[in-house]
Amino acid sequence: MEILRKSRREAREAVLDDYPSACARFSWDEARTWLDGLPGEGGLNIAHEAVDRHATGEDGERTAIRWLGKAGARREIRYRELAELSARFANVLDALDVAHGAGVFLLAGRIPELYLAVLGALKHGAVVTPLFSAFGPEPIATRLTLGEGRVLVTTTSLYRRKVAPIRDRLESLEQVLVVRDDDQPLPEGTRELGPLLEAAPPDYAIPATDPEQPALLHFTSGTTGTPKGALHVHQAVVAHHATARFALDLRAGDVFWCTADPGWVTGTSYGIIAPLSLSATLVVDEAEFDAERWYRILDEEAVSVWYTAPTAVRMMMKGGSERARSRAYPSLRFIASVGEPLNPQAVHWGVEAFGLPIHDNWWQTETGGIMIANFASMDIRPGAMGKPLPGIEAAVMRHLPDGDVERVGHHDEEGELALRVGWPSMFRTYLHEEARYRRCFVGDWYLTGDLARRDPEGYFWFVGRADDMIKSAGHLIGPFEVESALMEHPAVAEVGVIGKPDPVIGEVVKAFVALKPGHAPDETLRRELLGFARKRLGPAVAPKEIEIQASLPRTRSGKIMRRLLKARELGLPEGDTSTLETSR
Ligand code: AMP
């Protein structure tokens, strides 16, 4: 088997320099001592650990966020300033009588206000949900309703396009705070955030925060039913901080670029909280992916640790490594990737392009932080996700007929990836769906819904999902949400949605549709359906392909057989399709 060896020097210089002894020594209690806690035994608050504790003295002068605007603007926000801005936001919430524990949602591109509002809301004790700004009105309405959002922070243009049309459905929503990004009059029913921030005091004493107090609500898709709201608590920061040190080799003073959007869990855990908790400088690029721009940022912003995703890497690979090699990247020390399988070629491409391999790691919304990784000090097996972090016990499980699970009998046998409960960033429930939450556990084990195998050396390999979830450009998409949107069209009788393998973005969302009588299956209607879905769901979730069929295959109980549709699409034998159905 191919192995990419690390030198002794590389191992010695890594934060996690000796994996076996770190695993033997480490405890989450020790990791708690790496953080400060609120003054006067006031508990643990993410925003204090991420910002306020670095805001005074010399540390306060360090750049917390280096923001690169789409059109070339730049803004450096120092820790001291970020502490003040987030304090102002917390005071705005107080002034508006927003209850502690209320849901504060954010819908914005990567603009500075997004970051100060997340941190300010955490100071205030709100439960924060960043939404992906490429969502269309339907996913926004579903999530705001399920999460009982009371406050929404957005921009005037996003509000007009995506929220105004659904506003009357959002019964819990009390306040909409907008950042102006156009010249039109302020939309009715909103308040402008800028003047509110200016009028608010720049200091805020964070109230006592129980480490188990809810802090973040991240929605993730389910195979059936509505999206699931995975609830995380303030002490998740213990794991954010420790795992960034171990798996990303991140240290104080690093210039760190996480390319994930805060609308997805990676963009919050590692795009905001973890690097700030370590007193690193965060690069935030407002613009969408552009290979040339990314090479320039890595070079000119002197990025030292880069955390990205396989789709982005594969898009860069398409342009060839010469383009990457036209720059030097003298500061770049470590590259990691997450979210979907990282193919071995991509690991090697890192070496060709940057002189550094790409380190794959694995986690999911529910785990709140990285669980399995290829560490800086450890030989890489290209294609493997790596080994469990210190403090994490992972296993490959086989399901028994009585509902119990047991570890698979031998190495390399496939089963469901499971984690022993007890790490601080584990989700505490699916909001209002306690039964669905409990179904994820058997005894002490959390079952991840992923299929994996473990090799004799202890490396974990991703095999696939145990369910019908789709991973497209790193985004987890639930087929049900897409099917429900298409079912709203008057011509549609039935829909089945699958992920169709794609060499660059992993999977593309493909919908199979059967029409109601009286509708002709022509190109005009197919295009109309594509546009209809895109308008409701937004470009990140909508199907890229729609195929109209006379009827769709169903089980005896009437469920559309997505797996059969997928098997037919791939030209596979149809018998192999009735595997595991999970309840998640
Ligand atoms: P999300 O909750 O949206 O972050 O998606 C989590 C899912 O993404 C996991 O359950 C996996 O199916 C997939 N995933 C995350 N990281 C990896 C990885 N390194 N390799 C393969 N799949 C991954």
TrEMBL record:
One term of GO molecular function: acetate-CoA ligase activity
Name of a matching Pfam family: AMP-binding_C
Alphabetical list of InterPro entries matching this protein: AMP-bd_C (IPR025110), AMP-bd_C_sf (IPR045851), AMP-binding_CS (IPR020845), AMP-dep_synth/lig_dom (IPR000873), ANL_N_sf (IPR042099)
SUPFAM superfamilies the record matches: Acetyl-CoA synthetase-like
EC number(s) on file: 6.2.1.1
Domain AMP-dependent synthetase/ligase: start-end pairs: 57-431
Organism domain of life: Bacteria
Keywords: Acetylation, ATP-binding, Ligase, Nucleotide-binding
Domain AMP-binding enzyme C-terminal: 481-559
PANTHER family found in the cross-reference section: ACETYL-COENZYME A SYNTHETASE (PTHR24095), ACETYL-COENZYME A SYNTHETASE 1 (PTHR24095:SF14)
Official protein name in the record: acetate--CoA ligase
Organism of provenance: Halomonas gemina
Encoding gene, per UniProt annotation: acsA
